[in-house]
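User: Last request for today: this protein with phosphoenolpyruvate, please.
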Amino acid sequence: MIVQDPRAGVWTPESWRALPALQQPVYPDPAALEQTLAELRQLPPLVTSWEVVSLREKLAGAVRGEAFVLQAGDCAERFADCTPRRIANKLKVLVQMSLVLVLGAKLPVVRIGRFAGQYAKPRSDDFETREGVKLPSYRGDIINGPEFTAEARTPDPARLLRGFERSAMTLNFARALAKGGFADLHHPEYFDLDWSARSAQAEDYRRLVETITESLRFMENVLGVKAGETDRIDFFTSHEALHLGFEEAQTRQVPHRPGYFDLTAHFPWLGVRTADPDGAHVEFLRGIENPIGVKVGPTTPPEQLLRLLDVLHPQNVPGRLTLIHRFGAGKIEAGLPGLIRAVQADGRNVLWICDPMHGNTRAASNGYKTRDFEEIRRELDLAFDLHAGLGSRLGGVHVEMTGENVTECTGGARGLDESDLPRAYETMVDPRLNYEQSLEIAFLVAAKMAKLRLNCD
Ligand code: PEP
Ligand code: CO
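Assistant: Here's the final one, the structure of the complex with phosphoenolpyruvate:
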């Protein structure tokens, strides 16, 4: 039974303002914020409504089992990372992972980057105290600076415009790369696979790479077309819809299409800390036409999930709503089946994606915030099995990764341990898989999907 939105109030891009909004920065000069938002309202959007509609349709395909979704990127982008090399590397690892997944899933892969706007972060504490000094927490480059000084930590509305402009630059370069000159990425010869020899699955990986190479060669030699032309690299953008003034400023109507579109990204998502069905974030997201993601986990009882779906997904149209579950390897078996059953019993059409990162964060003995590759792998493995066991389907994965050779997560074929963490630890918020670990996860997921397919045939 689908219940209509219990509030049935009139939605407008600003109706969220009447409700409690968690995780919003406190600006010293609220008038300056409104002035900046007015400026933002006048600027051209980052994405277009037809791209948004196209993603919604692709996600509907994924609900039907006709596509698999890869959502990946930084936990928090930094303004300083808006460089050609880093943007190219990020796109490169996203494309290479997707190519590996295509082989495993035997399905088209919908690529969604956590980039070109993933600049605002929810925090567990509003303040951080160091040696008796208490300052506002760092909330992402679009809000304040990470340095522990009163000046850096004071929220500055000018950062909203800088972030918007950096998003535009990132997207502009990524789109140009995707359009031409980037076809190399389709070729496993350009994959850096040195790490794979160290893996227990080395032989499987070698075979998978050979298959990719053969299919590409077949296309190019036998069909006479370049892989880059047959499979245009398209990708979509996503970020957590956290700063509601920012999202509102770019939410608008477009000619010849009903409804309002949030044009800061194709796929905004709702984080677990702002998922109160009666809160401002849910109010904002309920009215936009974009496909949306909703993070769920140990803090989401099935009743709350159904209420969220009443409000955010009243029409139950496949593609509109994706549930991104993030339990942790130790909690997924206890928590996920209840959510799957609640959704099934109520006949809700949702896409399920597994985020194996956010439930597996822990402090290493040397104080670094880390995640272990094995836990990430285990949660993914369990997610596939739990869905299959209940007649549901896992339709995608969501990971925090980077194209750089960082040392933020332990494990993987190269066997990084806690003593490696200080070597190249860059993240401002959560630890990410590095280039090699990201590709390895893609290989493991591909192998898992191939195995599940065999079991079904
Ligand atoms: C995130 O995706 O970076 C995040 C903060 O996630 P969650 O809301 O699931 O904790
Ligand atoms: Co994160």
